[in-house]
Amino acid sequence: LAAFRMTPQPGVPPEEAGAAVAAESSTGTWTTVWTDGLTSLDRYKGRCYDIEPVAGEENQYIAYVAYPSDLFEEGSVTNLFTSIVGNVFGFKALRALRLEDLRIPPAYVKTFQGPPHGIQVERDKLNKYGRPLLGCTIKPKLGLSAKN
Fold this sequence. Notes:
About 20% of the residues lie in helices and about 20% in strands. The chain contains 4 helices and 4 strands, in the order E-H-E-E-H-E-H-H. It has helices at about 15-25, 75-85, 105-110, 120-125, and strands at about 1-10, 45-55, 60-65, 95-100.
């Protein structure tokens, strides 16, 4: 279950925006795909089951979306988050969208193997203690050469 705070574009009803978020973050796409007829997508579709206005905020709503567990690859955080938040934030029917809450069923959580060792091993390797460990991806578009 996911809760999205959304601000629809002017003229877009919140129900339409909520349905679009559910579709775009599960099986929907902006164009016709030839593979659509190969599999019944109904069992994989996200469904917007409730929309509530945000108190004190004009034109903001919480859209509650339920996803079937079969939509996601077992044990894959990457697949889970790519599906739910990977492409939906650029959706034109919305002026703004933010994932507010995510509830993951215990049966799905149990499919994650976890790291092969704990944080202490990582801290020992890096000789870093008493602070958070952060990482990032260095991208060439930041001005570094391939050699750097």
